[in-house]
């Protein structure tokens, strides 16, 4: 019976003990864990944790990058009936206080010295936190803190216990049930404290299996696990589906080596939020700026052909013989080498989720032969709600409801979901649970959308964020800020954007430049600058961004519903929006309300018709220190366009 994650692990270890389960890159060399080795590691860690006092139902904090021993720790905790709670490794220490105290955590397993230091810093605020184990001992040799020890010592103690109790692991796993809580994931908390989303083995395995069957995934897949394990998207792809399918999960050596590791592994199944695909495309465009005139001309000519017929080919539709021949030549000269450079030469299925992806960005990847598709889901739905079938991938939808999913729309356009993957509850928050789960089992997504004529779900925005303009020529026009922001972020020179307009007579926006892309652009033009703040306020950069904004306005003019959302004025912020400053979540979603309040003086300046505004902002550095950055920001007026009325 393979209805819990530990049972799935035991099944793989029994059926294919010597097959690779995990790989980790260490000192530039890939080290392989077989399923049999994984089972033995889980046995040792589970025995060690049991000896340390971890009880069924207790929570175990896990903090770090994707590491085989952290995965084994999660399996060990689940084997004992305990609940692993992954937290974001890039969170500052203060962000650990709420989840650790809320979940009454006594035990924590972390990756390295950085995470140990964070937990030690907040230990006085978390009195229940008694034991901390670390995976990487570097820098920790002289630490002498009560309850602090290495995973090596925990595993050694567990091995001694397992030797005298040979059937301990199997007996413990036998007691687990599919209805037991398997994990808890804290939401990103765009408003207020994060909420602990409780999932059972049944809910996670149900959705992981449905997603695997949809895309015909098997044990031969290769996955690169490089996103935070605390994000349920990464957790489902590299943990839940890994154990359901039995494929190989590869853990990079560090964040800095991901691009190299991507090329070395050549994953067949790939998942990333839009920001990762945006970053990859930006790097390509920057490299093309350095190419010779001949190479640039060839690239742009081939890409024009790819944009015209590439998506059609990906959708399995007929293409003229001459165009097909040209595309084949383009594949040899440009598309194939480009896929290889990106690390996507073997990708069979690639998904993006978390935020809407820009249509041009989506088309770019599909045009060069990468089967990039969109999915729809959330932490509360165990991710897999809607997926795009092969040959039906479209930029403006997120796919069709998959096996086991029902969707209906509330009167206000909110999407309601019912499936076997819904959360059990929000931990210690019955009021929030009752708010999102109806009495008859529907989950309120807070997203506004509709099912189109082809059966695909189309997302407009968050229900609370969809607004209306008030007054002026566009009085009553719909305003969907995320849609506008995503169109801005397609441009490689724009990293983030925040649009305002609900209840106002026009739309205005903040923009963050991409310092790498704009810096490269500036260097080509011999434009000196001293850091982000200086570069962002250069008149030449302001003009560059104005052209991008006006192109977005021209595109919006083509949309009957959103033509009124064209941006009338904008400014380029003097600092990058940062999760450490509270402006974004750890999954890089902008906290629009927080930003509106924090930068109220800038918002009012946009709408008051000012041409510039002084601002001084407190910022937090990585080491916990605070400082301030100030600048006089220029406010730019942009051209808007008459709405294009389409013939009925």
TrEMBL record:
Keywords: ATP-binding, Nucleotide-binding. This is AMP-binding protein. Transmembrane segments: none annotated. Residues 12-427 form the AMP-dependent synthetase/ligase domain. Coiled coil: none annotated. The keyword Translocase does not apply. It comes from the Bacteria. InterPro entries: AMP-binding_CS, AMP-dep_synth/lig_dom, ANL_N_sf.
């Amino acid at each position: 019976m393979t209805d819990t994650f530990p049972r799935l692990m035991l099944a793989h270890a029994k059926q294919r003990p010597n097959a690779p389960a995990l790989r980790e890159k260490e000192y530039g060399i890939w080290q392989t864990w077989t399923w049999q080795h994984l089972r033995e590691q889980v046995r040792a860690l589970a025995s060690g944790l049991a000896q340390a006092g971890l009880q069924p139902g207790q929570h175990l904090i896990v903090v770090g990058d994707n590491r085989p021993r952290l995965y084994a720790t999660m399996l060990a905790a689940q084997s004992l009936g305990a609940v692993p709670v992954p937290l974001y490794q890039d969170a500052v220490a203060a962000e650990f206080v709420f989840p650790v105290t809320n979940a009454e955590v006594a035990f924590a397993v972390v990756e390295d010295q950085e995470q140990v230091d964070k937990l030690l810093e907040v230990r006085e605020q978390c009195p229940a936190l008694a034991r901390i184990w670390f995976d990487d001992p570097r820098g920790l040799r002289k630490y002498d803190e009560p309850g602090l020890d290495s995973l090596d010592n925990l595993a050694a103690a567990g091995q001694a216990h397992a030797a005298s109790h040979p059937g301990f692991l199997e007996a413990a796993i036998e007691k687990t049930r599919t209805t037991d809580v398997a994990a808890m994931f804290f939401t990103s908390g765009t408003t207020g404290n994060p909420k602990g989303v409780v999932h059972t083995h049944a809910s996670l395995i149900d959705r992981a299996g449905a997603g695997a069957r949809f895309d015909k995934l098997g044990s031969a897949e290769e996955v690169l696990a490089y996103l935070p394990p605390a994000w349920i998207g990464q957790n489902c792809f590299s943990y839940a589906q890994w154990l359901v399918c039995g494929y190989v999960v590869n853990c990079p050596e560090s964040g800095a080596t991901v691009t190299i590791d991507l090329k070395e592994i050549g994953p067949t199944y790939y998942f990333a939020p839009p920001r990762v695909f945006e970053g990859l495309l930006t790097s390509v465009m920057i490299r093309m700026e350095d190419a010779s005139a001949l190479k640039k001309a060839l690239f742009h000519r081939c890409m024009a052909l790819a944009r015209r017929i590439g998506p059609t080919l990906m959708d399995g539709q007929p293409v003229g013989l001459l165009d097909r021949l040209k595309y084949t030549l383009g594949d040899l000269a440009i598309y194939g080498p480009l896929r290889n450079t990106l690390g996507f030469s073997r990708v069979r299925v690639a998904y993006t989720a978390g935020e809407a992806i820009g249509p041009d960005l989506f088309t770019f990847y599909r045009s060069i032969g990468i089967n990039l598709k969109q999915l729809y889901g959330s932490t509360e739905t165990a991710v897999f709600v809607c997926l795009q079938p092969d040959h039906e991938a479209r930029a403006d939808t997120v796919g069709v409801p998959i096996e086991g999913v029902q969707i209906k729309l509330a009167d206000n356009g909110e999407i309601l979901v019912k499936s076997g993957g819904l959360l059990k509850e929000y931990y210690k928050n019955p009021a929030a649970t009752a708010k999102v789960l109806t009495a008859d089992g529907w989950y309120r997504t807070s997203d506004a959308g509709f099912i189109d004529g082809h059966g695909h779900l189309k997302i407009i925005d968050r229900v609370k964020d969809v607004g209306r303009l008030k007054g002026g020529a566009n009085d009553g026009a719909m305003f969907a800020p995320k849609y506008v922001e995503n169109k801005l972020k397609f441009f490689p020179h724009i990293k983030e954007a925040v649009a305002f307009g609900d209840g106002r007579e026009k739309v205005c926006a903040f923009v963050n430049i991409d310092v790498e892309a704009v810096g490269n652009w500036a260097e080509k033009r011999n434009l000196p600058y001293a850091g982000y703040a200086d570069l962002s306020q250069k008149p030449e950069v302001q003009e560059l961004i104005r052209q991008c904004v006006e192109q977005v306005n021209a595109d919006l003019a083509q949309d009957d519903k959103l033509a009124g959302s064209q941006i009338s004025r904008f400014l380029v912020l003097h600092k990058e929006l940062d999760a450490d400053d509270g402006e974004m979540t750890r999954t890089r979603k902008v906290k629009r309300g927080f930003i509106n309040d924090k930068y109220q003086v800038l918002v009012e300046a946009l709408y008051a018709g000012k041409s510039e505004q002084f601002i001084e902002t407190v910022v937090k550095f990585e080491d916990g220190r605070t400082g301030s950055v100030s600048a006089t920001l220029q406010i730019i007026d942009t051209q808007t366009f008459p709405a294009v009325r389409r013939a009925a």
